[in-house]
Inverse folding.
């Protein structure tokens, strides 16, 4: 894996050293290809034991830096995605699933969960989406009402990553008026009474996904995460940090596809030469490489502005996710074309990447949602 882009001024020596060490480490790992739940548990334990998951929580609770560092998250996801999609998934969900606690959890909530997340001893999940509230997350209908000193939750969550294997869920429910101001966040242990995994969801690139049902799910009063009515804002703050990292994962998939396509083109004999000697191939490779560099610049800018300038990067993160995931889809598709029939053969690396990259254009806000975010921000800022 070529890491030259980390020499750009957006990154510092600690990011470059981390990337090189992680790339070397994951290259020595045996990548399991069995049961998806077991594979994800394996990666969480391995990443925890290696110390990599310490970058998913603040230093006060077992992490490396005082606060979450968006550039480190991006570097980790790009390297892990290059090697294995489920390794990237396992890392990302530890960060995203515990993100609301890192940002706004009470001292007791942070101490109860974050050190275990960093060690790979507790699997985290982020439960926002519902059957009728995906892209329009503010329309969620799962309810939470006070009952004495505690809370009672009723409703349904779906497309929940780590659903069925998580030890806890940062879950969002309606405690008040319609719209975003009526939503609150809760820490829900997987064994909470009234919470059940109603259905496991199968997708083209296997991941642990599930539909959850809450039927009079009882929680103690201290399960409330942050302030009542501030849950939607907390969800958006969390996504702002991790959305750019989706673009980084897409770049990891794209770089692996490019490397595979280049190796194939240089070795495949055709018309008395190699595939790489043909101008059509050279043009395709040039377009793929340029697209990856542009996407990597968008990701680096978003993460740098958040880390160094301390700015809210809603627009920049949306651009990074949109640009990188759309580019990665084109790069992987072109890599399959370079491989020809071998590219759609089960077991081919580009066939695996083709399945894995597609979901990135949907989760954590589909491309169309990112277009709306950027467009509205541009119009709002215009004189």
């Amino acid at each position: 894996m070529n890491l030259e882009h980390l020499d750009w001024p957006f990154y510092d020596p600690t990011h470059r050293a981390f990337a090189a060490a992680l790339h070397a480490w994951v290259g020595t790992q045996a990548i399991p290809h069995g049961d998806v739940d077991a594979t994800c548990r394996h990666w969480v334990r391995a990443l925890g034991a290696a110390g990599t998951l310490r970058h998913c929580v603040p230093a006060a609770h077992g992490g490396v830096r005082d606060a979450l560092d968006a550039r480190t998250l991006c570097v980790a996801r790009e390297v892990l995605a290059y090697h294995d999609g489920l390794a990237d998934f396992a890392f990302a969900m530890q960060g995203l699933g515990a993100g609301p606690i890192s940002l706004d959890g009470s001292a007791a909530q942070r101490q109860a969960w974050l050190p275990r997340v960093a060690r790979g001893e507790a699997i985290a999940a982020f439960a926002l989406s519902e059957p009728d509230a995906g892209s329009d997350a503010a329309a969620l209908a799962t309810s939470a009402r006070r009952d004495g000193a505690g809370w009672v939750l009723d409703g349904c969550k779906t497309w929940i990553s780590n659903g069925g294997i998580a030890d806890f869920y940062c879950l969002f429910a309606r405690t008040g008026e319609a719209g975003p101001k009526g939503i609150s966040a809760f820490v829900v242990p997987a064994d909470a009474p009234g919470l059940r995994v109603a259905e496991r969801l199968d997708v083209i690139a296997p991941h642990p996904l599930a539909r959850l049902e809450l039927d009079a799910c009882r929680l103690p009063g201290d399960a409330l995460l942050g302030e009542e009515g501030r849950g939607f804002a907390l969800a958006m703050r969390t996504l702002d940090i991790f959305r750019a990292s989706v673009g980084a994962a897409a770049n990891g998939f794209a770089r692996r596809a490019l490397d595979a396509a280049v190796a194939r083109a240089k070795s495949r004999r055709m018309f008395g030469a190699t595939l790489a000697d043909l101008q059509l191939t050279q043009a395709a490779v040039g377009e793929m490489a340029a697209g990856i560099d542009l996407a990597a610049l968008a990701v680096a800018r978003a993460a740098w502005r958040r880390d160094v300038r301390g700015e809210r990067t809603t627009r920049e993160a949306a651009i990074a996710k949109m640009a990188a995931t759309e580019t990665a889809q084109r790069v992987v598709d072109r890599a399959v074309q370079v491989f020809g029939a071998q590219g759609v053969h089960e077991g081919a690396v580009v066939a695996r990447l083709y399945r894995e990259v597609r979901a990135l254009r949907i989760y954590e806000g589909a491309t169309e949602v990112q277009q709306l975010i950027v467009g509205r921000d541009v119009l709002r800022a215009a004189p």
In short: The mean pLDDT is 95. Strands lie at 124-127, 143-147, 150-161, 168-174, 183-189, 195-200, 209-219, 224-225, 269-270, 273-274.
